[in-house]
Amino acid sequence: MPSGGVDPRRPVLVGVGICTQRVDEPGAGDEAVDLMTTAARRAAHDCGAPAILEAIDRVAVPHGSWGYADPGRIVADRVGSPHARTVLVKAGIPQQTLLDDAYAAIGSGDLDVVLVVGGEAAHRAAVARRAGVTAPEIEQPGVEPDELQVPTTEIVTRIEIDGGFASAMAPFAMIDSALRHAEGRSLDEHRDDIARLWSGFNIVAGTFPHAAFPERRDEAFLREPSRQNRPFAFPYNKWHCAQMNVDQASALLICSVEHARRLGVDPDRTVYPLVALESSFAAPVSQRREIHRWPGMEVLGRAAEAHLGRPPASSDLSEVYSCFPAAVRVQQRALRLPVDGVPTITGGETFAGGPWNNFVLQTTAAMAERVRAEPGVTGLVTTVSGLLNKPGLAVYSAVPEVPLLARDLAAEADRATERLEVVAGYQGPARVAAYTVAYDGLEPVRCTAIADTVAGTRVVASRTDPDLARRVTREELIGTEIDVDATEFRV
Questions:
Q1: In what order do the strands lie in the sheet with 272-278?
Q2: Cα–Cα–Cα angle for 250, 206, 225, nearest 5°?
Q3: What is the Cα–Cα distance from 469 to 464, expressed in whole angstroms?
Q4: Considering only CA atoms, which of 118, 120, 125, 119 is closest in space to residue 24?
């Protein structure tokens, strides 16, 4: 659309590129940086101005499972912008941050064109590893990015790890258990709710051209643990979890309105970020008084509503971060999305594919394609960093209906989040506030709980007891008094 009346320094998304592959020959296929390069070139072609690649001032990459020291440098050199500064952002910093940093630099006039690109070739690596061969990967000895961003807050505490937080699945499953209890749902009703939600995501994946696992999986399959759907952390099975063994990359080209015009970008390809909010505040799961809520995301939702004049839930399209069901279910409540809705255009990280620290780039690219194809609609994209630690919320449109609101609302999220002290070495009674069960194959073996003490503090403890573990997959444990001895408990 014409850009008349729009601030010429306003940052806009002008080109998106998505690249996927699936190779099953050990050692074959493109490595992650190859996929990123292809995605970047596709983004330039997408905006109708291939020369934009030579004008890139910054290449920002979210860190992945690969070993590159500075993947942005490889991409910059390959696409013809060797002068570009490179940024590598470690996991634990929201993926929304890479976009917000670009918007700020472009809006201030410090930069004109930014490429945000990321990708994984985890399936390729897994195929090679299983065959005992090496999947070649470019080495960069002695190379460093121009800027390295590292998180300064912890995602999981030593007390939580000692008490039984053995994987990312466990705390998300505990959050889901707390939500179940808060809403008065039985264990069976809870499992039904998750199966219905994830079945809806699966149906959407069947319509998304880039989905890695679009095969139909119905509610009954998703609900029940089986050899094809192994239980991981009650009530989660394999096909409730992000599937990270995928080869996927995405690239986003961002520039100012005036620079887009100067480069000859097709005006019909322009997408306007209306809201680009995040919070860098983080509170570990066990410290949160209300484990089933995410006050930080609620803060972002209220700020977006005040700016837009309507709630973000009114967006025509939604892509809610979906590493595990708890992430979606908590965000639905935090943003007042319909709890019986299916907030995805991709199918989510289970079925579209979850390329670890790159999923928000994938979904933002997909959302940009949708809002351009349907002028007048708005699209909501959210970010989860860590264990519902640092939220991100963005709203996009092909129409610049309001100025861009881009802020870090860490202070507001901090004030909104009630916390309890979590103690180590506690001995005595406590009441279970959340729990999950770990498995050995198909058999429940270990229960891990977050519990409230009579002194108003919190503890994290586990018990290896197959009989108890089996029983609490059928009977509610939340609200039960347990006897805690440091990192272990008895019922």
A1: 317-319, 378-385, 390-397, 272-278, 405-408
A2: 100
A3: 8
A4: 125
Tokens representing residue 90 in the block? 């470690």
C-alpha–C-alpha distance, residues 18 and 355, integer Å: 12
- The pLDDT averaged over each successive group of 10 residues in the chain (491 residues) is 73 98 94 98 96 97 97 98 97 96 98 98 96 94 97 92 93 98 98 98 98 97 97 98 97 97 93 98 97 98 98 97 98 98 98 96 98 94 96 97 97 98 97 98 98 97 98 98 98 96
Angle made by CA atoms 337, 209, 369, in degrees to the nearest 5: 60
3-state SS string for 31-74? CHHHHHHHHHHHHHHHCCCHHHHHHCCEEEEECCCCCCCCHHHH
Q: Give the integer Cα–Cα distance in Å for 132 and 427.
A: 48
* Cβ 59 vs Cβ 84: under 8 Å: yes
Q: What is the pLDDT of residue 154?
A: 85
Pairing of strands 443-453, 427-440: antiparallel
What is the C-alpha separation between 195 and 201, in angstroms, rounded?
Answer: 10
Both tokens of residue 333?
Answer: 């409540």
Burial of 15 (0-12, 13-18, 19+ CB in 10 A): buried
What's the pLDDT score for residue 2? Answer: 39
Q: Tell me if residue 487 falls in helix, strand or coil.
A: coil
- 3-state SS class at 173: helix
Q: Are 395 and 312 in contact (CB under 8 A)?
A: yes
Q: Which of 90, 92, 218, 244 is nearest to 154 (CA)?
A: 92
275 in Cβ contact with 393 (< 8 Å)? yes
- Rounded to two decimals, the pTM is 0.96
Contacts of 307 (CB under 8 A, 6+ apart): 274, 275, 402, 405
The closest of 330, 292, 274 to 434, measured between CA atoms, is: 292
Q: How far apart are CA 448 and CA 11, in angstroms?
A: 46
**For 398-442, where are the E strands, in sequence order?**
405-408, 427-440
User: Residue 336, exposed/middle/buried by CB under 10 A (0-12, 13-18, 19+)?
Assistant: middle
Give the number of other Cβ atoms within 10 Å of residue 394's Cβ. 28
The vertex-358 CA angle with 357 and 359, nearest 5°, equals: 105
Q: What is the DSSP string of 117-161?
A: EEEEEHHHHHHHHHHT--------TT---SEEE---S-SS-HHHH
Spacing of C-alpha 117 from chain mean position:
15
Alpha-carbon span 14 to 103, nearest angstrom:
13
